[in-house]
Every structure is written in structure tokens, then in C-alpha cells.
Amino acid sequence: TDFNAKTTLNVGVTSDTNWLWSSDANWLTTGEATTQTGNNPSFTYAVSANNTGAARTGTLTFTTETGDVTTTLTVTQLSSIDVTLSLSETERVIGADADAALTVDVSSGTDWLWSSDSAWLTSALAQSQNGDQTFTYAVSDNDTGAPRTGILTFATATGGITATLTVTQLSRLGSTLNLSESVLITDFNAKTTLNVGVTSDTNWLWSSDA
pTM for the complete prediction? Predict the structure, then answer.
């Protein structure tokens, strides 16, 4: 779990007899009765905030009242400095051709997951990853006739931190030509510095009718 305090963590306990619980860490506690009977499908426990600067591990031990059967739950809590996630870039523009060797550097001190919002923007890597690494992703050929944008989302496995990479893929050469505006109204004075933004992936020409 992450470094934040939590009061509603739970684990299911299955038993056909009386049993007891104990904790070996003062930051790992529960308000449940020490002695329980039979099944408890939602045994609730809590962890305090971890401000120690290092990950820590505690154990909840469950033992039958007679002491002949014991089982344990090991809880690892990350520290605030462990839960990090950042990318080497947040935006990228690429050509229309398919490319399976695109990369972004992921920096993290914990487990993390990735997802894509577009079928043409994928990765062969497993959804769950860990730590710092160069993340490889791919785009398919853009034959749609228009630029397209997809988003890769990276999130810590325990939640709390998310980073995104916006990928814009251009269309085939010669298929796009756009202006930042299509109408301009100006006053009667002469002007020599009017401008308009032109976006294109090919050569283009201009002309005037006045």
C-alpha cells in the first residue's frame, strides 16, 4: 500500500473455529475484537501514515484458539519518497508511418501500470511494470487522411500519481493544410505585420484575390 494512512483495509478470514489475531507493528492495527469466531469475510485493519523515509513491512498473524493452525498477512507500506512517477516527455509528434520502436523514459520508485486510449497506440509490454525503465510503444500506419491524437496513461499501482504522454501522429504527406483562423476583421489603417498560423505536412502555395 502507499504511504498514506488508511483505516478501511480488509482481508477475508475463513475458519470453522475460534481464532485470534495479533500484529507485530504498532503502525499496523485493527479495531476488531482480539478473539473471533468462524468466518469474517471483511476483517478490517488500518495503517498509519509512513513518514519514516523508507518502506516498512508488518505482519498480522491469525491463530486458532488452540494454537495448532497459524496463517499470516504481510503488509508492505511504501514511504512518501518511494511513491513517485514521472515521464521524460509529455507530448510527442510523429510521422504517418508505423513505428514499433518509440520510447519514453519512466521514472518511478514503485509498481506502475500503463494504458492507452487508442487502438493504434499500443505497447508489447505487460500492463504492470516496476521502477525506472525505458518504455517502448508503437503506432500503426496512419492512412486515415487526417492527423490523430492518442494518450498513454501511466499510474502508480497503489493509485495517487498519474502521468500522461500525448502522441500526435501526422497523416500521409499532402493530406493536411490548416489555418489558425479563417476570418480576420481589421480597421482601415495600413498594416504590414498581420499574420496567420499555417499547419501542413507538405509543400503549399498561397494566393490573394484582392
Answer: 0.53
